[in-house]
Design goal:
Layout (H helix, E strand, L loop, with lengths): L30 E4 L8 E3 L13 E9 L3 E11 L1 E6 L2 E7 L6 E6 L4 E9 L15 E8 L2 E2 L3 E6 L12 E2 H11 L5 E4 L1
Antiparallel strand pairs: 1-12, 1-13, 2-11, 3-8, 3-11, 4-7, 4-9, 5-6, 5-8, 9-10
Length: about 190
């Protein structure tokens, strides 16, 4: 296609050979630490705060609250950016992905008090177009259950690229294996290679 628009007498070079592929050896995970090891700043807030409210630009943000009433219905996160995992008492009950416009999951709180956690990942920033000025990260509006707003949050910014990983309390895989049996490997943990 391009060749037909080149000046007369010019030709395109030959197509280069494909790049060589390489393989990497298997990686063994030797130790794990609970994600909570990275909680260095814990902010109490009645309302949801976004990453920028906490001076954070990239990474993750962890939201936690205690539910005091049994409830069954729909949990809605209005405008999560960009990806979120929802845990109830340490068990994953769902996830949200902004790319798929997901905003609702079923929730069934059978015993109280119940710990609701939402771990949100910022997967990148918009750097062009009309959304450049509307580019906040985290939960940017609110969390509701059956249209009732949930308040009383403990929020932990997790800019992991600044983390002092050497100070975390890592333990052998026995810790992880116990969690795997109970939580099917979903509970957020950090791995040391």
């Amino acid at each position: 296609m391009i060749q037909k628009y080149l000046p007369q007498g010019e030709t395109l070079p030959d197509i280069p050979a494909p790049n060589k592929t390489i393989s990497f050896p298997a990686v063994t995970l030797t130790e794990t630490a609970a994600l909570s090891e990275s909680f260095t700043k814990r902010v109490k807030s009645d309302k949801i705060l976004i990453m920028e409210d906490l001076g954070q630009d990239f990474g993750y943000i962890h939201y936690e609250t205690t539910l005091k009433e049994c409830v069954k219905g729909t949990l809605q996160i209005k405008d999560v950016r960009d990806y979120a995992v929802v845990l109830l008492n340490g068990e994953q009950i769902g996830s949200f992905d902004r790319r798929h416009r997901q905003s609702k999951i079923d929730i069934d709180v059978e015993t109280v008090p119940a710990k609701l956690e939402i771990l949100v990942e910022n997967v990148g920033r918009v750097n062009y177009g009309p959304d450049i000025l509307n580019n906040h990260k985290g939960i940017t509006e609110k969390v509701t259950i059956n249209d009732q707003e949930i308040n009383g949050w403990i929020i932990s910014p997790l800019p992991l690229y600044k983390a002092k990983v050497g100070s975390y309390k890592f333990s052998g895989l026995n810790f992880f294996n116990k969690l795997t049996d109970r939580h099917e490997g979903i509970l957020p943990v950090l791995h040391l290679i």
